[in-house]
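User: Run a structure prediction on this.
Assistant: Running it now.
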Amino acid sequence: LRKQLKIQILAQKYITERTAEIAKTYDQKDIDAEYKKDTATYDFVTFRAYTFNTTELTKEDNETDDALKARQTKADAEVKKNANDFYNAVTNEATFTAKAKELNKDTANYNVDEDTKFSMLKSKVQSNFSEDAAKWLFDSSTKEGSKKLFSDEENGKYIVVLAVKKPHQEKTVTARHILFSTVDQSTNNELSEEEIAKKKTEAEDVLKKFNEGDKSEDSFAALANEYTEDTDTSNGGLYEHIYPGQMVTEFNDWCFNANRKPGDVEIVKTQFGYHIIYFVANDGTDYYDSTIRTSKANQDVEDETK
């Protein structure tokens, strides 16, 4: 089994290195031309968003259907009014954040930037908010500072959106990680406090093992292959060309810390568990550049190894 694992690691290392090697060979003009075919696929927009959701009420004791319907209509109207009041109060980013803080003054540890400010690809805006919001934010006529209220009454949702920065590019980073999951994979429920504490200890033990070695990226990748519980990556825990907002908040903030440097390693706790993260590099390239190059290189390497 150990021999098989070693062969797997060497094969993964070859593919990773070969992909990176080929990616550098493409002419910049070809990469730029591919980007210009559909800039909206690769650009980001920065915006504020606040969502108001209606709640489906349940029948109270001895309540008639008509009474429940009337109560539901009144509750839905109140949510719609709150959304309109928020929209009308917003004149700029400062008033947006002030209003959001006001509505969440009783929410413990409320972070207005974490909860309302986003930098996303068009596809992410569509999936996280709405297709209409994505179209509006990426429309060339939408100016920075513009606002709009999007209504989805069928799903009981109202979203106030403020455009902060027009479509633009973001730099990417590359990192590896080892996940010790604190979520039961079969039920998706959080583990018990005792089990979570055990996961933390496991993460600390593996980090200690890494620090007692040569502290190289290859050593980290080998440990990732042996210990990680992340089913989304088997290549030594590698995540290439990570863009802002791609990862869960704590992971994202660690990777994009202004002081982050290659070789940094630390345990970071997120909703998914304890991550030992190894920072590989600031890629120094725009998202579109690294994404298109990697996509083309992956295909070429796949063709080579068939």
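The beta strands are 44-53, 117-121, 147-152, 157-168, 171-181, 238-242, 265-270, 273-286.
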